[in-house]
Amino acid sequence: MLGRLWEWWRSKKPLVDAAFMSPLLLVSILAAWDPTDKLGVPTYTVLSLALCLPLIWRRTYPRAVFTVVALVSFAQWLEGITPVAGNFAVLIGIYTLAADQPRVWGFAAATVGELGALMAALRYPPGAGEKKQSFIMLSILVWSVWILGTYISTRRAYTRSVEERAERLERERDTEVQMAMAAERARIARELHDVVAHNVSVIVVQADGASYAIETDTARAKEALETISATGRQALAEMRRLLGVLREGDDTGPYAPQPGVGQLDELVEQVRASGLPLDYEVTGEPREMSDGRQLTIFRIVQEGLTNTLKHAGPKATARVRLHYGDEAVEVRISDDGRGAAAADDGRGHGLAGMRERAAVYGGTVEAGPRPGGGFEVVARIPAREEVRA
């Protein structure tokens, strides 16, 4: 509620400027109540109103407001009226032009203010020494206000450029993430193609065998038909997932056999050979899984260890835990490296790829710094449909 009220208040420029102008107007009118002055209260009141009221629109029409205030001050000088508190409106006008307008307008306003300082110093103080001192003080005041306004203008321009750059980088990062996700979908589609092609090949071979054995060996023919049924269901499930992944414009070359859970030992040895101390453990009762699920687990472990090698630091150690549960297969990759302190250039898409792979099978991936230091990736792949004990 307070945030909305503040935003509404800031959007009403004349209302805000009127609130900031009110104290100056009040001080100027109160100072006009001088019984010894021959001009009287009405003259000073009108002069104060003429100087202060235009400030209500100082940010809406800054040039026009400064022009009006400068002309009123010039008329005051011509009539020989003693300066009042409302004459600070000239300095406010200089600051506004320097802060909100192009540099040339701010400098022009400061030049006019310098001329006004010279005119005031020549007319109002009685002594020559006082004239010089008054001119110096007024000049310092005018150019100090101009310097302040110029600094605020530069600061605002810098802040706007930083905000625009941050927004542009955020848009570019979103685009890169989308491109990475599209590339990952294409990669998953190629790999699932291999899995489905393998299953169909098994079906063809078993069907040929059943056709030859159906008259001479009924038991073997029945076994072959059961294998065809199981493999067909598995291939159908894989195809359903395949239809959800687009492969437009994919021409990355011929397909090759993809790794699975059985190749994790080789992956672990490769990582150890690269110099990273690694502890690998498998718990629970291993299950027979579809090639697609095995490939997903392998890629998640591979990406997690790759991130460890890149970001954990030279003295880090890693652990990989593969747990076969009743409902899901859990993969946990952790290290004791830099964790949240690791440098990130914002261009990596490994975590996005992990989540894409796990989502194909209805799984989840959670990743982040560990409370005690280091980084951890936890993936859970449901053990349903093709997974059987």
TrEMBL record:
Pfam families: DUF7134, HATPase_c, HisKA_3. Its EC number is 2.7.13.3. InterPro entries: DUF7134, HATPase_C_sf, HATPase_dom, His_kinase_dom, Sensor_HK_TwoCompSys, Sig_transdc_His_kin_sub3_dim/P. It comes from the Bacteria. Coiled coil: none annotated. Residues 264-385 form the Histidine kinase domain. CDD domains: HATPase_UhpB-NarQ-NarX-like. This is histidine kinase. It comes from Actinomadura fulvescens.
